[in-house]
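Our collaborator T.R. sent over the components below with a one-line note: 'Predict the complex.' Nothing else. No constraints on interfaces, no templates requested, no preferences about which chain binds where. So this is a plain run: every listed entity goes in together, and whatever single assembly comes back becomes the starting point for the next discussion.
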Amino acid sequence: MKVKEIVNYIMVILLIVSLSSGVYGCYTYGQQVKVFRVGWGGTSFDTFNPFTTYAAISSWSTLNVYSRLVRIASDLKSFVPDLAEKWEVIGDNTVRFHLVKNATFHDGKPVTAYDVEYSFKLSAEPWSARISSVKMVKEIKVVDSYTIEFDVTSVPLFFTEAASTVPIVPKHIWSNVSDPSTYDANPPIGSGPLKVTEYKEGQYIVLEPYKNFYYKKWLPKVDRIIIKFYSDVTSATNALLSGEVDAVGPYIPISLYETLAKNPQFKVFKSPGTMYFYLAFNVDPEGTGNPTLRDRLVRKALAYAINIEYLCSVAWPNYSKPIANPLPTSNIFYNSNLKVRPFNQSLAVKILDEAGYRVGSSGVRFSPDGVEMKYTILVPNKFPEAVNAAQLIAKWWSSIGVSTTVKPMDTGSMSSIIWQKVDDKIKLGHDIDLWDWFVDPISATHFEVFVSDRKILGISDSGYNNSEYDNLFNKIYEAKTMDELKDVAYKLQEMVYRDLPYLPLCEIQPIQAHNAKFTGFDYNWPGGPFSGSDWRVFISVAFVEEVQPTESTRPTSTSLTTYTTYLVIAIVIIVAVVALLFLRRRG
Amino acid sequence: MKRYIASKIFSMIISILALFTLGFIIFRLLPGDPISLMLRDPRLTEDQIKSIKAKFGLDKPLWEQYVIYIVNVFKGELGISIYYKKPVSNILLDRLSNSLILLIPSTIYSIVLGVLIGTLCAWRRSGFASRLTTTISLVLYSLPTYWLGGILILISINFLGLPVSGMYSYGIEYLNSLEKFLDLLSHMILPSITLTLVSFGGFTVITWSAMVDIIREDFVWALHAMGYPSRVIYFKHVLRNALIPIVSVSAIAIGTTVAGAVFTETIFAWPGIGRLIYEAVIYRDYPLLQGSFLIITTSVIIANTLADMLYGFLDPRVRRS
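Returned assembly:
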């Protein structure tokens, strides 16, 4: 290479570097704005319409955008005022709410009892996702602009299911919408302490304080909250590690637990669960699964043949616990009098022997009618832990003469096997499935999953059909007091415990993490602060005092300065290579 | 030439029409229905399910759903997404532009790098460096995107400090558009490197094999005998003659670019069409799946037709046949 070419070379590189430095030098930092960023790796955001959303993230994003009449208190037993500053219960069935008088929607219009009435009526529309929450409401009466009365079948249920959950939307906007069932409500106009200032589909939502909110103490301590969407929790947790977000929901993957726990920059914690795994036995009288499972004694024997405590500790180590009821233990209606059945294979064998289930020549038992105890467990392949659990169960059952095949598959395939349409009727077509449910911490209506008509709607995966249970469940809607409601819930659990359409296995306690420079979270809230159910998170989040003054809008560990440096280096290298080739070619 | 182009366009239209039907059938063959997957709530009511089915036309017989779909496609309507409850065309356009921002440069890098390395390897085909480069290209080509992306993320978190997710540093108030552009570029680095590394190997191998075939032809010996420098022979004459298979593979690559890169977009949380398709499959969002399928297949067919036309232009023998 000639000296002239080398000089040319150096000149080109110097020119590029100097130009890049110019760009680099133009940088100045943005304003000092306190930002809290959450990475969400759960189910995708769907819509801002609170009456049609089924996604946890959509509800969570707007929990503080739309007001509720009341909010559940931290003790999960009482309610605190929100839009209703006070209320009184009149007789057994009427609740009168007095609304705050200075409440306004984010567009400046006042919030009145007519908006509340309209919101409850929208909730009761057949297309509404909230219709079941307002089933107990018989009549709504607007007394005056700031007083509203609800005639309900059950006051305690009304508070847990409706008054604390129905979002209050502006009637002056929604009543002008041609079809509220397809309205995307973007940007959402509510009257809560946060308002949506920016939304990019599939990317992020920006929330900022609504300065005219009626309770100043509920205004957030940060200037901006950003919820970033990820396709899975691993990507979201990587973003936490790289400093692109400050917290991760709904949980962190167990594979990254050690990495985060070792790093003092992060606070990693475990919260009470809202999710549980269970075995559902096909007990559908019209079902096409193995008929031996309709025998309660068989289910009882199978239950005794599983070491649930060990199962939880192996399949979900350190973040699960065994449960006796189809509810997480954090749910206020969990019946703690019922205990997990002990692991007792001898008892299981005895029950089967006494019921006439003999071991055949192949080592597999068969019923007095000659049906072999050969089962298939369907399990969602998106939960490898659940697949391991199913395989462990199959192993235990094989030692009592029950042959089990585990079939992991996607939930779509599971649904099509479980709920089969035969002669225009839904019949359950599987033997057993191992699946999960999420349950709100104050919900009593989860027990509806065992009501007989749930099978035809593609909800009940056990096909449990018991009119006694159905009648008892309906009493939930008539409970006059919380104690009465609890009593019904306890009895329902006793029936499920006795009849075993479900064998509850493990409650999952989510592990979550956030950057240690933030504080103000309640780690004991069921599901944790970032699962999408805690309405207080964005109000209470704050910087720990010592880092507050230095905080800026820019991510600290991945600042633009660093990015630009790498960009400049990359550009210089690419241009240099191209220049080299070009010069060589000319030569 | 005109007849050749007309016949190609005619086949293209027939293929696209056939794909409309395929797009409708294929997703309905997937087990499970969107309602049961989306609405797993023990408290659902019968009216609620009926109402949602009616809203998305899922209560109608399949043939009727098909007719509505075809009529709507010709009207330019792709329906309403069952999950997002928004027009499919709006969602797709937004996501498509995001995907193209990432994928067009990555595809160009892959083609340029692949052709360059393939040519160099063919030129010095007996050398150790050539063998090593070909092996490395093939190894990278065989690497799972998810794994390579994960490794790059790990390296970035521990050593580089490059952004590992999203398109922008959301929440930042940019002082000017240059700052925003640089922020976008910085977010593109890792996904672009991943995409380039996993795909340039294919171009390297195609170029290498096409070049090796041409090298044995008489005109190459003649050029050597005439005293032309090797670099000129390989880069100017041999490469030009080896272009047909390269153009073919490049056209397919550009066509499939529209499909996004499901794994790369998922792991780097890039809000593109690939990630959207992944989500649409999970939720069995038929209108969204049909819309995505339509756009992807149409773009692949158009890209292939253009490549066919280009063959005719590059090689008159193809045109005449």
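Summary for T.R.: Chain B touches chain A through 70 residues (CB under 8 Å).
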